[in-house]
Design goal:
With 148 residues, this protein is mainly α. It is built from nine helices and no strands.
């Protein structure tokens, strides 16, 4: 898939009602032979800033999952791979913060949507789709080794 197709796939999942975290992981799952059902389950509790804790944005945590698939370690003694993957996670977080000023769900909502808009779930169109698109694009570039 191209970068644009990947971004559009993530947005389509989100528009169907999947969490931001699910939308990101689902868009990349076929590239890693991760079946859709498993991807949905793994990422299902990370939406709304990790289980509605409004901490790290679900689009970002979904991106972390993809980076794990692309660069993660399987040998617990392989610190080189582990630390390199951790660096990529920090890089993704920083790149999202560079665009949006934060990667924190609560702060993103507070910055872009009123409490009433959040209560009416209008924030999805105001900010969430934008962060999903940005995160999907950044992750695509990272796994294609175009950036970072």
């Amino acid at each position: 898939m191209t970068k644009e197709e990947t971004i559009n796939s993530a947005l389509q999942y989100f528009d169907q009602g999947y969490a931001c975290s699910q939308s990101i992981l689902l868009a990349f799952a076929p590239s890693y032979n991760l079946d859709e059902h498993t991807a949905k389950l793994i990422s299902s509790t990370f939406g709304a800033g990790m289980g509605r804790l409004r901490q790290t944005c679900g689009a970002v945590t979904g991106g972390f999952m993809v980076l794990g698939l692309a660069y993660g370690n399987t040998d617990p003694k392989d610190m080189t791979t582990k630390l390199a993957a951790y660096k990529r996670v920090r890089d993704l977080n920083r790149l999202v913060e560079d665009i949006h000023g934060t990667s924190n769900c609560y702060e993103l909502l507070k910055k872009h949507a009123s409490e009433a808009e959040v209560a009416e779930r209008k924030h999805h169109k105001i900010i969430c789709r934008k962060v999903i698109a940005d995160a999907a694009g950044i992750v695509f570039d990272m796994v294609e080794q175009k950036t970072v």
